[in-house]
Amino acid sequence: MFHILSAIVLCLLALPAAADEVFPTFADYETFVDTKIKNREFSNVISRLGGANEYTPQQLAAAQGQLRNVVPYYLTNADVAKRVELESGFAQEMRIYWNDKNSYLFY
Hints:
- The chain is of the alpha+beta class.
- The chain has 4 helices and 3 strands, in the order ααααβββ.
- The chain has helices at 2-14, 26-38, 42-48, 57-70; strands at residues 77-85, 91-98, 104-106.
- A 3-stranded antiparallel β-sheet has the order 1-2-3.
- The protein is globular and about 40 Å long.
């Protein structure tokens, strides 16, 4: 239940994220997200992907704390569970992060 909640919360927090900063390549974006999610730096992900001007520092700190409580251990593995090619060069991905302590998160 907590894992599903963490996926939902992370998705909801990212909703206002209208890409304030563009990454030079998709590989750069992927490296950033994988590193930050594995290290449980959720507020950095939210801020960099557009939430910096959507949330107060207090809200980001609260989200960071809530998500770290739901995902108490560092995540060691990452993979793409599903990728759907859309029109005009866009794609939609669902990524999974997990560890050997039965913690996992969908992004």
